[in-house]
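Deliverable D2.4 — example input (structure tokens):
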């Protein structure tokens, strides 16, 4: 082989090797993106889905002096072949006085039977439905369908402050409980139950908030402006704090603790309203109809309504039981 042919052959070999290197480099890049596409394809092959099963009828309630908290259960189940992260949201349809007074809590429970108004549960989320947000959400992880941890039972509780039932008579709130399950970033990897699960849950405050459990008996003594009314109710327990108050012009007005007399032996509470109490409440010269309410709170417990009654006041004939 002449020197010229040898140089030509070497040049061809170098060109061939260079081409192979270029092809190998290009092939590696394609393999990388193909690997991403393959992962993407695997995700596409995986099924996604979520089922929400509700037992929330109890939340459709009318709040009274003796019913301040209600509880309902919903179950969120992963129907997909991959694990996901669920979100359960309690939202208000609009901002109302009752909506703003509500406290909502979402807790995980082992079974529906554990979800009761008075159960001590650790909340995943708890708060008010403020005018700006109108929603409260809780999140957690779910295993793939058929695996342990593939579903979760959640207890949804709503409550109002003890005095709200005397201030918000007739007010309503519309709530919705919805869920979603997110498998990866992006809306297409988020599953939501089909249809309007649960619908709108309507809550309201009773126009006659005193029920049999909280009604206090009333007895009037005396004449004219010196008359007094005595409200009584059995069931007062030792170790419980009792706080009396009146509802005046739609506002809560605390009364002196001395207004309430507790007979611990007979488990009885008595509230005496007389002229000096009307003066303290600035209603001595303002005839009208008023609520008298006694709140109770045991050590570490929630504030509830122990008893309530109505009285009316007239400038000439004084205080009378009822309206």
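Example output (designed residues):
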């Amino acid at each position: 082989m002449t020197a010229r042919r040898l140089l030509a052959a070497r040049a061809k070999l170098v060109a061939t090797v260079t081409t192979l290197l270029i092809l190998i480099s290009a092939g590696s890049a394609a393999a990388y993106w193909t690997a991403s596409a393959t992962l993407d394809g695997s995700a596409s092959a995986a099924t996604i889905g979520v089922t929400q099963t509700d037992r929330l009828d109890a939340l459709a309630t009318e709040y009274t002096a003796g019913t301040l908290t209600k509880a309902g259960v919903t179950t969120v189940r992963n129907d997909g072949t991959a694990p996901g992260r669920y979100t359960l949201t309690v939202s208000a349809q609009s901002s109302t006085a009752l909506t703003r007074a509500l406290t909502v809590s979402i807790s995980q429970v082992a079974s529906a039977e554990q979800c009761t108004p008075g159960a001590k549960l650790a909340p995943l989320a708890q708060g008010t439905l403020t005018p700006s947000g109108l929603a409260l959400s809780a999140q957690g992880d779910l295993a793939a369908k058929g695996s342990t941890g593939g579903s979760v039972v959640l207890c949804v509780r709503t409550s109002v402050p003890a005095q709200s039932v005397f201030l918000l008579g007739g007010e309503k709130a519309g709530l919705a409980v919805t869920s979603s399950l997110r498998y990866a970033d992006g809306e297409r990897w988020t599953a939501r139950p089909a249809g309007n699960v649960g619908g709108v849950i309507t809550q309201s405050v009773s126009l006659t908030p005193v029920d049999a459990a909280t009604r206090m008996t009333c007895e009037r003594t005396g004449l004219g402006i010196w008359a007094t009314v005595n409200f009584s109710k059995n069931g007062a327990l030792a170790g419980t704090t009792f706080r009396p108050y009146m509802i005046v012009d739609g506002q809560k007005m605390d009364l002196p603790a001395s207004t309430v007399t507790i007979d611990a032996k007979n488990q009885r509470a008595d509230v005496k309203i007389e002229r000096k109490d009307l003066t303290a409440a600035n209603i001595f010269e303002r005839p009208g109809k008023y609520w008298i309410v006694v709140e109770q709170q045991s050590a570490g417990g929630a504030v509830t309504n122990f008893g309530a009654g109505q009285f009316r006041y007239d400038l000439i004939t004084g205080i009378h039981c009822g309206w």
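The longest strand covers residues 172-182.
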